[in-house]
Amino acid sequence: MESPRLRYSVRRQVLNELSVDTVAEKSEEVKTSVSAKIKESLKCSRPKAKNCFFSTLPLFYWLPRYPFRENALGDLVSGISVGIVQLPQGMAYALLAAVPPVFGLYSSFYPVLIYFIFGTSRHISVGTYAVMSVMIGSVSERLAPDSDFMIWNATTNESTVDTVTRDMQRVKVAAAVTFMSGIFQLLLGLVQFGFVVTYLSEPLVRGYTTGAAIHVIVSQLKYTFGISPDRYSGPLSLIYTVLDVCYLLPTTNVGTLVVSIVTIVGLIIAKELNTCFMRKFPIPIPVELFAVIIATLVSWRFDLKTKYEIEVVGQIPSGLQPPVLPEFSLFASIIGDAFALSVVGYGIAISLGRTFALKYGYKVDSNQELIALGLSNSIGALFQCFAISCSMSRTMVQISTGGKTQVAGALSAVVMLIILLKIGELFEELPKAVLAAIILVNLHGMLKQFTDIPQLWRTNKVDMLVWVVTMILTVVLNPDLGLAASIAFSMLTVIFRTQLPKYSLLGQVPDTDIYRPVEDYNQVKEIPGLVIFRSSATLYYANAEMYVDALAERSGMDIAKLLSRKKKLEAKRLRKEKKEAKKAKKEAKKREKQVEETSEESDHEEKFEITMEENAHETDSDLPKAIILDLSPVNFLDTVGVKTLRNIQKDYGEAGVQVLLSCCQNCVVESLEKGDFFNEKVTKAILFSTVHDAVLYCQKTEDEDMEATHF
Amino acid sequence: MESPRLRYSVRRQVLNELSVDTVAEKSEEVKTSVSAKIKESLKCSRPKAKNCFFSTLPLFYWLPRYPFRENALGDLVSGISVGIVQLPQGMAYALLAAVPPVFGLYSSFYPVLIYFIFGTSRHISVGTYAVMSVMIGSVSERLAPDSDFMIWNATTNESTVDTVTRDMQRVKVAAAVTFMSGIFQLLLGLVQFGFVVTYLSEPLVRGYTTGAAIHVIVSQLKYTFGISPDRYSGPLSLIYTVLDVCYLLPTTNVGTLVVSIVTIVGLIIAKELNTCFMRKFPIPIPVELFAVIIATLVSWRFDLKTKYEIEVVGQIPSGLQPPVLPEFSLFASIIGDAFALSVVGYGIAISLGRTFALKYGYKVDSNQELIALGLSNSIGALFQCFAISCSMSRTMVQISTGGKTQVAGALSAVVMLIILLKIGELFEELPKAVLAAIILVNLHGMLKQFTDIPQLWRTNKVDMLVWVVTMILTVVLNPDLGLAASIAFSMLTVIFRTQLPKYSLLGQVPDTDIYRPVEDYNQVKEIPGLVIFRSSATLYYANAEMYVDALAERSGMDIAKLLSRKKKLEAKRLRKEKKEAKKAKKEAKKREKQVEETSEESDHEEKFEITMEENAHETDSDLPKAIILDLSPVNFLDTVGVKTLRNIQKDYGEAGVQVLLSCCQNCVVESLEKGDFFNEKVTKAILFSTVHDAVLYCQKTEDEDMEATHF
């Protein structure tokens, strides 16, 4: 099976044919066949051209093909279950977004319907999401703070907050930021920028959601304890809020705290039971719905609102509201938040969508997802929804109850519609503390992510750093600015990872053409007279200087020293020559006087000079014959990289050491060409396709040299 | 010379010994010998331990060894020349820094002396630098604007600026920001953070200095035209200033403009002459000094100040001033500017220093340079200097006039001292327009850098992008914020470059063990039944998804489709089985009625099933036997990368395609190990040291399979 080992000359010949004019010599034949192949595979992987209509309106593609008999029952059960879960979650997340609960219900209705039409993921449950909600809450509280809505009550001589006006303003802010984030998503989708999500690596997303979860917890403490801490915004606001909460703890409303604790404990127990009996029940028990119903009944029966001053949800208008244009005057002050929202919303949705697409064997189109989410948000915002994404917990409910397509989502929207039209107003007596408890209990999944830290510590310390830094930045700088800082940091880690590469000298694995780092393997042998050098990373501006230093250190040849020694020797030689000339003159004069005398001194000087020259020769023969740079890990070359290689080539060349490059990728060779690396002196003959070829070349020329000297 | 080609089994055996337990099996012997070697080379490349004293106070090392006879004359001539150049430059750059000219003279004295003691570069001329000066100017004008120093003149009924108080305040601001930047440099030097400069790649530095040059030009227009535009700060301030200057052009002071034009034209002509006659004169003519002297004489003789209202330099106090502590209250508002100054100053100095060190064969210690500059700035600031770096033009003067060591710098400081003590006050009548003209003419070097754009366009488009974006960001966001944004952008380009790699299928160069991309070479042949895949870049979070997609496209195997087809086939088979079972029941019932009849229908069904199964088999045999991933360009693996490889391994494995990894660096193997890539199913046997080994392995197992089926 094996091809016979070729001698160097033949190999070299083949390679010369191949490697030198890489771009020019491409065979059109091969090219077309390859591109045809690629096109074909592209064609089969996604619908193109005539399917453009279907790709922008996927509903019309898959709904006529909907396998009714197989999926209908599962989707129905799943849709109702998700709708039931969305009722308490929607109200609870509305608290997070600092708007009245009914807007959380709207947000669980309109966007879901729109996603049903445009979305390509069959399994994710689009709707309210804790992280997005808390981000909106921070915007709406910043732009419509309590302090702007104080009214003086003449009878009690106290100023109170005009909550109705305030909430209306907050809804406007939330709708505006949602509208804008939707427009951003739409634009990104239309220019096919779906790839931006690739900057959200997994450690980053998990660290970010954990950091956001901490924000969620802190924002809910006021409802849990029934206190009203001051509102802070900007960096470090979380810490100020926590301090304020601690300061206000003595003023806790005991009734509210009791409700919170009872609900939290009840929910945890019920959820545990749910997990235990998962297999026995076909559908998980909607514990949150029960909690809401029981709490509402208790609150109404015992009149908790007036007796214990427990804050309740309050008026829930029944029915739907006509669409309203967002307030454009707000746009300038929310542009940053809107962008952060659009990226986070998309990032979460697409990563969940892809996970399940891979699991169930279909494809999610990232740009279409952007468009779908963008339309959901921007159209939803007209109906005063706040920004949505998809939630992991609801998606799990949707899948576990048998949901197989987007139809489940549409059915859950229908459930929401019924609730909005008929049942919503029944929940007016529900204590807000119960909603806060639902939020807190739902966060356990995100907080579990803290176990990532020991796991990442074991597997990849840099990724752990990304996780931890992202979490801290998110907590300290708030979710919007924190996201930008985290993405910047995670990009920085790419620089870190390639900035401190491992530099190695390579040696030959005996009797093979394989070269490996001498420090890692005990059987490899360095080739005498050759330095084979490799960096583990790309050579670019951030590590170019280190590359030169490492090469000098490992090879034991310090260019500065080599050159300065050369210069000194030359200078000395020049001086000596001058002296000689002077002496010769003197001698001549002396000779004129004493012609026969021989000068012993001059002899001595000559001897000294000879020793010096010998010395110089000796150090020269210490030097290796050639340096072979293994450039296989080089991904690209920037101008600094080309310059570095040129300097190495020039400096070592001047010191009499040949520099050969091996294993260059085509793009590297192109960069070298464009960067004027090659000239009359330095030709492409210094490029070798493998380290072994370069070694053989060196050994061959050495042999020839020796033969030449022999004959 | 060549080792005989080894058969696969031998090679594999050798590699098994070597590759599997890379970390554990390291021979201590090899390790120590290597580390000893490195230590040795480290030792010879820089003085250590006992030389600690010398490395912090290099003066005491090199001054006793100063070759007086060789260098003294050159250094003396060079020192006087540089001192003469520094006089007009110092005064001019003081204008840029928005402080009275004498402080520019101080800045050309104290810091130079301190650098003489602590610096390690022998050739750079430390002192005032245009970019640094304009940065300081923007800070001092921001914190001490004209509007803060208006006084009401009761007699003229006009408000005028109290320039004396204003300038005193500006000097304080400049000294404070200089002190702080010096402290930053000192701290960075002490924690050995000299490497931060590696983030300043060459295209970035050149783009940055070009952008800064534009700031310098704009800041000097008011002196050139004799107008007083409003002061703007923050982003886009340059554009506002230009608009304001254009608006004020009709109010130009004609006298000032004439002086400016005459000086600029004169300087340009003189400089051209200087370049032409460079070889004839041993020392370049100090044209700027002549310009200053002539202008002062003319101004004094014709009383330009009162006759034509031309602004002159004004009072120059003679002698030195006692040190003053910087105003600590200013520190909070200048911290960002100070950091930018420290980075820029260091970046410029070290890049120039390194260039000349390489040229003249010695080494510049980057951390010691940071300390030297830090001390120069912080101690200088106590004497009310403004931040210094080194200037290219002065350095060229220093070298071309024969300067060989830091002594030249020290002598130039002595020249400055004489000027400060005796001659300075003579220049009080010098028009500021002349200084502005000197600055503008000196900028031609920086503006010449615009020719980088076509050159970089040809050699490296990404680096051109870095250059252009840096320049624009610097112009738009001002030098401080612009620097930060540019560094961030230049890091982003590393992501760009690796984010869109080239994906290729590799084929064998006939009769060799070399594998090359099939689309680049016309002689390579794809190995039938094998897919050899390579990405030109590292596999990490920003391109992991694309890697999977590209692999699917190039190999023609869409994992989603494969899996879904498999699932569908299975589902159909299940359904069929159910039907069969039903039919069997029916049959049984039928048989009860009509025992003898044979069912043709059932026969047909069976046939159909067989065809389907055959079909399934056929598509399976279409699949390649194995996928070989060439990971040689992978520099590191993050968790996303490991996960991606694991998914590829799992998904293709499930579809019956073997996945083999080849050419992994040790760090990649370590990441795979730590990331739990290997388990009982996926062992290290899938790692191959070359692509060829993997190919041989596949072919061997294929042969064995065939043999097994034959016998």
From TrEMBL, chains A, B:
Cross-referenced Gene3D superfamilies: STAS domain
Compartment(s): Membrane
Ranges of biased composition (kind: Basic residues): 575-588
STAS domain span: 520-698
Cellular compartments per GO CC: membrane
GO molecular function terms listed in the Swiss-Prot or TrEMBL record: secondary active sulfate transmembrane transporter activity
Region (Disordered): 575-608
Record field: transmembrane: 93-118, 173-200, 247-269, 281-302, 328-349, 370-394, 406-423, 467-496
Keyword list, A-Z: Membrane, Transmembrane, Transmembrane helix
Record has ATP-binding as a keyword: no
InterPro entries: S04_transporter_CS (IPR018045), SLC26A/SulP_dom (IPR011547), SLC26A/SulP_fam (IPR001902), STAS_dom (IPR002645), STAS_dom_sf (IPR036513)
Pfam families reported in the protein's UniProt record: STAS (PF01740), Sulfate_transp (PF00916)
Source species, domain of life: Eukaryota
PROSITE patterns: SLC26A (PS01130), STAS (PS50801)
Topology class, membrane: Multi-pass membrane protein
PANTHER family: SULFATE TRANSPORTER
Annotated protein name in UniProt: Solute carrier family 26 member 6 isoform X1
Gene this chain is encoded by: slc26a6.2
